[in-house]
Amino acid sequence: MANARILVADLTWVDDRFVAGVAISVDPDGKISSVGPETALEAGAPLERLPNVALLPGFINVHSHAFQRGLRGRGETFPASAGSFWTWREAMYELVSRLDGDETESLSRAAFTEMRRAGTTTVGEFHYLHHSATGIDWSLDPRILKAARDAGIRLVLLATYYRTGAVGKPLQGAQRRFESPDPESFFAQLDRLAPLLDPATQSLGVAIHSIRAASLDDFRTVYREARRRGLPVHMHVEEQRGEIDEASAVYGRPPMQVILETLGTAEAVTAIHCTHTRPRDLARFLEEGGTVALCPLTEGNLGDGIPDLPGHSERELPLCLGSDSNLRISILEDMRWLEYGQRLRRESRGLLRNSAGDSVVTLLAAATRGGSRSLSLRAGAIAPDHWADLTAIDLNHPSIARVTPETLAAAIVFGAPDSVIAGTYVGGRWESAHPDPCAAATR
Ligand SMILES: [Zn+2]
Questions:
Q1: Ligand 1: centre distance to CA 438 (Å)
Q2: Which of 76, 161, 203, 320 shows the greatest Cβ crowding within 10 Å of its Cβ?
Q3: What pTM, to 2 d.p., does this model score?
Q4: Could you report the per-residue pLDDT of 429-441, keeping only the tens digit for each?
């Protein structure tokens, strides 16, 4: 077996602060075996010094629909009247109607590559475009695995259950390419996917698209089987008032309440958006073990609204971040807009501060350990027995000139563009964020 190697950057993010002189031992299997002072190193293992670099845990994007990268630049003119999520959805369905396997894979590879260059080392792909236009063949699922492998990004494929087109209504048009006929055939497809995964970088999770897309019986069945398999479960919840009105008309109460009553718990559940969730429902969801994923750039672009988050609390809020429609891929921007949305809503600052009064730690936690919790991964921290997934910051970048180690994290989160990212390690494997443009042109 090959030897471990040791990384020593100028600064390393440990225990929520940048520390100098930290040595990270990386095993040949891509995991961190130890983290400690450089002075305590034993002789022997090869040492890679990373001058002018600060290391953060690799950023985790828990919510992406990679194929929607094909909508970038579209849908930003409004000739008839003001648009909405629902008019955007028609444009998305139009894209779906003309995507084949090759194009889906190509768009996914482009999105994943862009994510990695922006410092993201793991993506949770909420994947519901399963089938070709000819019928239920699940032919697009392996395309996502291939695209992620090509991009070198860690992937949690959140295979998505999607059975109804609206509450109690059949699928229509492009939605048929999302179809899960029933829970049995859905989990049979998961069984077929399992041997196709790269065990070093890929794992499975389950998503139930939304309360629009599954009956309550199916919610219960799919959730229970996913948990029996130890898989995390994601779902869109209350992004749009229209969804709340539709569910309330049928069930007599809003989706979050219905989901909590149906599942009886929120263990291992990540609710995406919660834009219009009532504070009491959100509090119960969090008490029952749920995690909330926000996608500020997409929510802003779609005009969804700004969620009513609990704000400062003694315990760390279980938050995480997603790039969702991938109209813009920048997890640094999503971090700052997570806080800015709350500031604009409350006309106040530092709403998401931790018990030490620090909001930057909360934002970085959402992009790292919050994501690992949501996706059931040993990642999101520079710590033993975690994947060696790391984001390297270029300390020579002009946007962070004249800051100190104490103010560096805030300078990165609030003041730096993505070009501050020098590169990333995924499972200990380095890739520059600024590849040779001549080599890239051949892709
Ligand atoms: Zn989404």
A1: 34
A2: 320
A3: 0.96
A4: 999 999 876 654 4
Catalytic residue among 209, 273, 276, 386: 273
User: What separation in Å is there between the alpha carbon of 295 and the centre of ligand 1?
Assistant: 8
pLDDT tens per residue across span 168-215? 999 999 999 999 999 999 999 999 999 999 999 999 999 999 999 999
CA of 431 to the centre of ligand 1 (A): 28
The terminus-to-terminus CA distance of the chain in angstroms comes to 34
Q: What pLDDT is stored for residue 440 in this prediction?
A: 47
385 is annotated as an active-site residue: no
pLDDT in tens, 126-138: 999 999 999 999 9
Give the helix ranges, DSSP H, for 200-240: 216-228
Active-site residue (options: 324, 334, 389, 394): 324
Q: How confident is the model at residue 16 (pLDDT cuts 50, 70, 90)?
A: very high
Quick one: which of 365, 318, 360 has its CA closest to 340?
A: 360
pLDDT digits (tens, 9 = 90+) for 301-357: 999 999 999 877 778 899 999 999 999 999 999 999 999 999 999 999 988 999 888
CA 328 to ligand 1 centroid distance, Å: 14
324 catalytic per annotation: yes
Phi then psi for residue 34, to 5 deg, are -155, 155
Distances (CA, A) of 182 to 158, 161, 213, 354: 17, 9, 12, 43
CA of 26 to the centre of ligand 1 (A): 34
Q: Cα separation of 394 and 433, whole Å?
A: 10
Distance of alpha carbon 255 from its chain centroid, rounded? Answer: 22
